[in-house]
Structures are given as structure tokens and as C-alpha cells.
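Support request from a user on the community tier.

User writes: "When I paste my C-alpha cells into the form, the page sometimes reloads and wipes my input. The last time it worked, I copied everything first. Here is what I submitted, just in case something in the input itself triggers the reload:"
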């Protein structure tokens, strides 16, 4: 039986293409994430980015913060910047966007609020990480009601004060990547921390 050479060529090309697509998808799954800075931390309407300790608050500010806690509230707003790193070599197939990024915020390993990005974010294949700002808004009393005024203020200062740090935070996320080959979901949730890309 004589086999058409064109058919053989098409089959071979199909196998090569499939392997290339598979390898590309494997590379795309290596998109890395890390926690960056914490910005614009507010307790109510009070911006605390210039404060590093309790004594930096004046008497009226401390009275205001104390009255919030006594009334059962300690509302905070801040931005957590997630850094996304695309290690792929620049090409059409390596162009990635985050189509969806469902996340849950943990503070001191305690589960707090959840959210998602409001629109896709492009993560190009370049050496510089892409910053993804996540806006947080929660009441710390809902999760740390037994900690007292001083501890709540110190927690806020450690996160968003003058020496702001995301070391007490972690984010568990389920990224969905948009690629030229279609959407790609991670096989399981990933944990994002400050120390290293994951």
C-alpha cells in the first residue's frame, strides 16, 4: 500500500507542533509570584505610612483609635503589591496575561478576606517583574478581636507603618493565565510570600 508523502509530512509536522505546544505550556506554567511592598495603609482615614511606633501617634489619634476598638471596629485599607515574574524567552507564545487571580489574604497565618483582580494584567517575558496591586479593605477586629488596642495598632504598624513589610502576610491564589494557546489554570492553589518567588 502506497502512502502519500504529503500525508506523512503533515503527520510529522503535527507531532512536532504538538510537542512545541506542550513544551510551551509547561514553560508558561512556571510563572512565578512573590509579595512586594505594602502601600497606603490607613486605619479609618488615618494614613500611618510615616509612623513606626505607638508614641508617633498624638493624643487625639490614640483616642480615636481606642474609641474605634471599643466600638467593635478597627477598619483598615491598604495595597499589597504582588510581583509576577515571567521567565519565558520573549516570543508570541510567551505573551501572558493574568485573566483571573482569585486570592485569599492571610495575616499572621489567619485567613481573612478574599478577592480577585478587576481586569486582566499583562505579564511580559522581561527580566523586570510585573507589579499587581491588590486593594485590601477589612476590619481587623473581625479577625483579631481578642488582641487589644495596642496589639492591633502594632500589627497595623508592622504591615503599613514607616518600616512597612509584607512578612506577616501571605496570599493563596489560583491564577488563570491567558495565552495565545488559550487559558491555562494552575493545577492547584499557590502560596505567595515575601521571601521568594513561587
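"...and here is what came back when it finally went through:"
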Amino acid at each position: 500500500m502506497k502512502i502519500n508523502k504529503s500525508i506523512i509530512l503533515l503527520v510529522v509536522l503535527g507531532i512536532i507542533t504538538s510537542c512545541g505546544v506542550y513544551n510551551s505550556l509547561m514553560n508558561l506554567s512556571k510563572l512565578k509570584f512573590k509579595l512586594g511592598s505594602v502601600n497606603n495603609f490607613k486605619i479609618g482615614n488615618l494614613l500611618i505610612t510615616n509612623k513606626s511606633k505607638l508614641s508617633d501617634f498624638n493624643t487625639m489619634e490614640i483616642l480615636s483609635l481606642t474609641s474605634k476598638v471599643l466600638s467593635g471596629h478597627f477598619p483598615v485599607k491598604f495595597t499589597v503589591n504582588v510581583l509576577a515574574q515571567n521567565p519565558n524567552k520573549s516570543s508570541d507564545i510567551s505573551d501572558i496575561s493574568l485573566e483571573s487571580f482569585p486570592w485569599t489574604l492571610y495575616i499572621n497565618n489567619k485567613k481573612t478576606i478574599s478577592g480577585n483582580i478587576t481586569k486582566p494584567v499583562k505579564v511580559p517575558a522581561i527580566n523586570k517583574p510585573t507589579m499587581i496591586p491588590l486593594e485590601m479593605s477589612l476590619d481587623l477586629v473581625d479577625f483579631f478581636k481578642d488582641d487589644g488596642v495596642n496589639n492591633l495598632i502594632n500589627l497595623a504598624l508592622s504591615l503599613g507603618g514607616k518600616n512597612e513589610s509584607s512578612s506577616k502576610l501571605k496570599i493563596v491564589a489560583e491564577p488563570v493565565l491567558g495565552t495565545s494557546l488559550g487559558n491555562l489554570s494552575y493545577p492547584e492553589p499557590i502560596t505567595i510570600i515575601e521571601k521568594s518567588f513561587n
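Agent notes: The reload is a front-end session timeout and is unrelated to the input. The chain has four helices and twelve strands. The longest helix spans residues 5-28. Escalated to web team.
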